[in-house]
Amino acid sequence: MTVHLPTKALSLRPPNEVMRLSRLGSAHQTRLSFLRALLRRMRDENWRVAKHAFDIDERGVGKAIYTVDVKGRLLSLVAFGHELAPDERTDRVIAQAWDATFVLFDGLPNRQDVARLAANVPRQEAGRYLATELVLARANRSVRLFDHVLDSLAQGRQPDEASVEAIGYLMRTTAVYGNGKFGIADRDMIADRPELSAPFRAEMLTVYLIRIFTLDLVEHLARLRGGAKAALLDGRLRRRFGIGNATGLGMAPFLVKHPALVDRWITARETALARVRELRHASRESVAVFRATLQCSRRCIVRWVTSDEIQARRIDELGEDLSRLERFASEKVFAGPCPWEAIWRFARENLTLEGQEYAVTLLIEPHGALIDDLAETMAIDETASFRIDGRMSCETLRRSIARDYAWALELDFSQSRALARFWYVSEEKLEPRLGERFEEEGMEREQPLAIAREVAALAAALDREERHTRVAAFLLAHPEHRHAVRRVQIAGRHPYSEIRDNLIGASLRPIDLLRCKLAFFGATRFDPRSDRWVRITLFQGAPFPDELAAQCSERWIYGE
Amino acid sequence: MIVSFNEVESTILKAARGAGMEWGLAEEAAQAARFLARFRLPFETPFLHLFSTRAWEATPVLEGARLRSGRADGWLCPIRAGAYLSDLSEACVTSLERLVSPLLILPFASRAMAKTDVAWNEVRLRVGPLGIMLVSGEVRALAASQAEEVSLSSFEGGWTGAWTHEGSAGGAVIEDASWARLQEYEALTYVPASAKSRSSGAGAGEIDND
């Protein structure tokens, strides 16, 4: 097979290619994903995790405290265990009771703090919190696996490995809240603390600690039940437990409401890919890591199980894609010029979207020394991009739209299919929802997520303006376009800020939005439960705190 | 109660929209509220008063360096007027006529000019990059519901006096009753459930025991 190499300098993939929903919805974790960056930092800075208190009875009721010593400064996970009736166990964010509830506390809580937290944390959204609390979360058991593991250990046996592998977690979180929710600390308060400044760093740490808690809990309950004959989990099997997560529409608007932040995430990943593609030669070590990761991945995706027909087909195709990629990445290719670029070109021209995005992951993987610094560039002060530049002329703004929003101007909003849906917040659940515009009430209370339609309307209004009119004067008369003007100006400075698809069209699949965000978190095993609801696994295979120091390879995430 | 700045921002965003502002203006209102909360200045009473007036429905008119409501005897909206100041980022407006909730112009004046003096009635405020000084007037006058004339001017040089209001962290103290009234406006952005919405929901099963 002939691969044509570029004659000019490589650049980042264009936004028109990267920011389509079908591609964002095919994203996979990479070295830059937030949970991986967290574990590297924990390893490099020797964060020490300790079980400070564990007072839980045989029903699973009680509390536990884990501390993390970050270079002399403490963070604490305070966990509360509850007894939950089976008919109360729902993944829905609107549930009112859970198997366990958690808070990440800034420092070590004293008795008064713990008493206050005990009165609020189990109530989650119904409680109130202070700025000493950084993250609020809750989780439910995977009853099937939890009971099986508990029974097995209590009888002195190891649980069935296939069951552990098939489910992958003892508990799944149903919400993890940060940034000022219900009175907890605003992100501003931790944004300048290097250990917590990366996006969702505090949330990822919370989930990592919850994973440790779930394993300690099941072993503790087995000991209470089985006494001296109870077993502890085998070390290798213990690692196969991650944390599950169930995510619905509540997460979807985030990517639209934080355009400058999304640009930082995508820019980091695309920069990493570009740096790798530009390498003229492949080192022996990097080739070995690439091959090992590819082989692990092929085995790993066999264990990626979903009942969703579309995703199941995509996983099958991904398996074929990886086989083709492995065959292509021969010694001859690696001996030639710009081998990573050659592999990338092969992937782009021959693989499915799912396969292409997996190729991004594989290409980045061997190059930690070249790209890991980018993980620290993924946060941004969003207030800096908020102010509208009103001195710009309407003509300049119109040109920006032509350049960055051609995809939106091509949509025909006179067709009902183009505006079949509308996003709203449900009064009953206080959660984002997607409604059918022509079948349901409420479109006058639509959330501002119909970006394509807004920008198309702005373009039409600008066409009626004098070219040299300043944007400030235009907006003084037309405040209805203010939201769209801000987005267009942000997109001008942040090329990957805008999802380049119609978010109110009939063919929208909301899980594409969820998948993209979860991939940046570092999620694996996407298991769609519908077109707007997905289960995932986090930290499956990840080293425990006492194993981090000895951990050189990060191939645990590929099931090694 | 103590509310986080993020709660201030998100509640004012939705409340402003619920009261009837365009989303882009509601975003400006939300940022303004966060600014005031951070400097421990009252935002709840000025916003509640603004919401009751619907002053943003009148298009402001610029006459020289003077901004006024486009309606005869109308009142000027500090969010629409403030957004214009912020957009231009220069000292092009020195006077605002018949302004509703004048304190709400402060965040915009600060964004437009790093060093600004804002004055109405007996109140004089000096806004610098690191703090705000109540030069004259009483604290309770800050939450005035309206002012016939508000003047803006930039000041030169440094500021050696102590700021009376400095940027803070850890949230804002707010009266429960005011917060509840803001939440009533916020609720106007929510859509009541229907049989159809209940059936499609967020897509998850009701019970998840697997």
Q: Can you give me a brief rundown of this structure?
A:
The complex is a heterodimer of chains A (560) and B (210). Chain A is α+β, with helices and mostly antiparallel strands.
Characteristics:
heterodimer; A: 560 residues; alpha+beta; nine-stranded mixed sheet; two-stranded antiparallel sheet; 24 helices; 11 strands; 43% helix; disordered N terminus; B: 210 residues; 7 helices; 36% helix
Beta-strand percentage of chain B? 15-25%
Total of DSSP H or I helical runs spanning 4+ residues of chain B: 7
Order of helices and strands of chain B: EHHHEEHEHEEEEEEHEH
Biggest β-sheet of chain A, characterized?
A: 9 strands, mixed
In angstroms, what separates the terminal alpha carbons of chain A?
Answer: 31 Å
Domain tally of chain B? 1
Shape of chain A: globular
Helix/strand-derived category of chain B reads alpha+beta
Helix content of chain A: 40-55%
Tally of helical runs of chain A: 24
Strand order of the largest sheet of chain B: 2-3-4-8-5-6-7-9
Q: Which residues of chain A sit in consecutive blocks of at least 5 with pLDDT less than 50? A: 1-7
Distance from N terminus to C terminus of chain B (CA atoms, Å) equals 40 Å
Rg of Cα set of chain A: 25 Å
Q: Strand content of the residues of chain A, in percent?
A: 5-15%
Please estimate the helix content of chain B. 25-40%
Q: Rg of chain B, please?
A: 19 Å
